[in-house]
């Protein structure tokens, strides 16, 4: 397939067909239309966003999402790109990449961090040919909740005992009555997100953004697990429950003052035990390859690797 390429901006109302297109790029990881719509409706305010679908011969064959923070918050001018192209349209990838680079450069980007899946060789090849350097890797893993059922339920029970012994209370967000929940969750989110190994500078989230994050249609308050130490919020873990595609861990985090006591493991075990009780057969999670404690937890739970994500750097 060759010919003229055209680019069309897309937004929340396009989410259903764009989710289908992303799904066609990676059929083993279907995208949920409602989740994509929510992602685009709640993009970080004040940031620059550019979402583009690539067409050739009248057919949509690729999707890209580019963004950058306000430049006065980021003197190095980091922009990011996340992109997909159907393998059957691989020959369009180099021109699509050039077009997205042009847009990011025009928007003032100095350092471009571009992500693709590790088995997307048709996207890696043009990036490597253009001199991109691999900067980070994100491991993606899957846990079989059917084969691991008994072992995981026993691990959850052991974690519960350990939390009882330490006076840590495990409960869901739906059960939580603390009127200060959102300010506490915002503090926990910002303190812990800053500790995730990343090539991007950390930009704290407002309480409004944190609330929006939990309004994702795949997230349910009765399936978000919290750990409390007295009046303090110590940790959180939750799984997403999309209408299509696998359940993923949305986030697992433990406040700095509470680490190393098995609390993150305990909240995560509650999410897995609940998923088992709901009949979910497998769950996925994604972790930066340099995030040693969470990689260790996931290894001991029996997660097995599936294709991960690569982040490449190019100075524009
Ligand atoms: C990752 C995180 C959730 C762990 O919280 P925690 O409450 O300290 O975790 P736990 O105490 O339950 O378990 C940590 C485990 O990792 C192990 N560990 C800690 N540091 C480690 C390291 N550098 N290398 C290997 N293992 C390590 C601990 O020994 C423990 O293992 P064990 O359960 O077999 O004894 C916490 O560090 C955090 O919030 N980080 C920032 C947010 C984040 O990265 N979230 C996960 C990815 S999205």
What is the CATH class of the largest domain? Alpha Beta
What's the CATH H-level superfamily name of the largest domain?
A: Gcn5-related N-acetyltransferase (GNAT)
Radius of gyration: 20 Å
Count of extended strands: 12
Cα(first) to Cα(last) distance is: 29 Å
> SSE order, as H and E?
EHHEEEHEHEHEHHEEEHEHE
Give the helix proportion (percent range).
25-40%
Number of domains: 2
Kindly name the structural category: alpha+beta
Low-confidence stretches: none
The percentage of residues in β strands lies in 25-35%
Small ligands present: coenzyme A
Architecture per CATH nomenclature, i.e. the level-2 architecture of the largest domain: 3-Layer(aba) Sandwich
Q: Can you list the strand order of the major beta sheet? A: 1-2-3-4-5-12-6-11-10-9-8-7
Give a quick account of the main beta sheet: strands, pairing sense, barrel closure: 12 strands, mixed
Overall 3D form: globular
Roughly what is the average pLDDT, rounded to an integer?
A: 97
Quote the CATH topology of the largest domain. Answer: Aminopeptidase
H/I helix tally: 9
What does this structure look like?
- This protein has 316 residues and is α+β, with helices and mostly antiparallel strands.
- It has two domains: 127 residues, 3-Layer(aba) Sandwich (Aminopeptidase), CATH 3.40.630; 167 residues, Gcn5-related N-acetyltransferase (GNAT) (Aminopeptidase, 3-Layer(aba) Sandwich), CATH 3.40.630.
- The chain is 34% helix and 31% strand.
- The chain is built from nine helices and twelve strands.
- It has a twelve-stranded mixed beta sheet with strand order 1-2-3-4-5-12-6-11-10-9-8-7, sandwiched between helices.
- β2 and β3 form a beta hairpin.
- The model has no long low-confidence stretch (mean pLDDT 97).
- The chain binds coenzyme A.
């Amino acid at each position: 397939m060759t010919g003229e390429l055209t680019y069309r901006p897309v937004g929340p109302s396009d989410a259903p067909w764009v989710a289908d297109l992303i799904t066609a790029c990676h059929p083993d990881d279907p995208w949920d239309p409602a989740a994509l719509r929510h992602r685009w409706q709640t993009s970080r305010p004040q940031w620059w966003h550019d979402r583009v679908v690539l067409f050739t011969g009248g057919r949509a064959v690729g999707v890209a999402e580019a963004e950058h923070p306000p430049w006065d918050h980021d003197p190095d001018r980091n922009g990011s790109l996340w992109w997909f192209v159907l393998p059957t349209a691989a020959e369009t990838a180099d021109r699509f990449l050039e077009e997205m680079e042009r847009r990011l450069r025009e928007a003032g980007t100095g350092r471009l961090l571009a992500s693709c899946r590790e088995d997307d060789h048709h996207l890696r090849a043009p990036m490597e040919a253009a001199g991109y350097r691999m900067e980070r890797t994100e491991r993606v893993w899957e846990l079989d909740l059917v084969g691991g059922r008994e072992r995981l339920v026993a691990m959850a029970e052991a974690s519960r005992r350990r939390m009882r012994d330490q006076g840590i209370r495990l409960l869901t967000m739906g059960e939580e009555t603390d009127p200060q929940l959102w300010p506490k969750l915002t503090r926990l989110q910002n303190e812990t997100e800053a500790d995730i190994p990343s090539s991007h500078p950390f930009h704290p989230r407002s309480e409004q953004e944190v609330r929006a994050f939990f309004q994702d249609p795949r997230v349910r308050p009765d399936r978000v697990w919290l750990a409390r130490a007295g009046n303090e919020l110590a940790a959180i873990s939750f799984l997403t429950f999309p209408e299509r595609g696998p359940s993923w861990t949305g986030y697992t985090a433990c406040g700095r003052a509470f680490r190393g006591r098995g609390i993150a493991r305990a909240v995560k075990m509650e999410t897995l035990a609940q998923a088992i009780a709901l009949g979910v057969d497998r769950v996925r999670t994604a972790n930066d390859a340099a995030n040693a404690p969470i990689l260790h937890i996931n290894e001991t739970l029996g997660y097995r690797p599936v294709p991960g994500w690569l982040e490449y750097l190019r100075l524009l």
